[in-house]
Amino acid sequence: MSVLYLAVFGTCIAYFLQTVAQKNTLSTHAAIILSMEAVFGSIFSIVLLKEAFTIKMAAGCLSILASILITELKGKTN
User: Fold this and answer.
1) For 24, 45, 57, 76, which has the most beta carbons within 10 A of its beta carbon?
2) Which residues are within 8 A (CB) of 30 and not within 5 positions of it... i.e. 6 or more apart?
3) The predicted structure's pLDDT at residue 47
4) For residue 27, what are the contacts with CB-CB under 8 A and spacing of at least 6?
5) Whole-structure pTM value
6) What are the distances in angstroms from CA 55 to CA 47, 50, 51, 70?
7) Which pLDDT score, from 0 to 100, does residue 49 have?
């Protein structure tokens, strides 16, 4: 039952809602929102699971976020 629950709610419904939402927003905004996954994942792992915040976690969050922001902001100036 756990696998079925995760398959339905964690995958099917989540991807359906993501697709519907992406149709109604700009691609730039969608990319920035989706790039925040690493940041929110790190925050929730620290808050909910009491994991230690490491240099690797910080570097990963910052590199993913910076790469998306640089790419999206560079496109606006051209």
Assistant:
1) 57
2) 21, 22
3) 93
4) none
5) 0.56
6) 17, 16, 13, 22
7) 92
Task: List all residues 6 or more positions away from 31 whose beta carbon is below 8 Å from its beta carbon.
Answer: 68, 71, 72
pLDDT in tens, the chain (78 residues): 889 888 888 888 888 988 998 899 888 788 778 878 877 888 898 899 998 988 998 888 788 878 877 887 776 655
Q: What does the block give as tokens for 42?
A: 């790190």
* Cα 68 from Cα 61, distance rounded (Å): 11
Of 15, 19, 40, 39, the C-alpha closest to 30 is 19
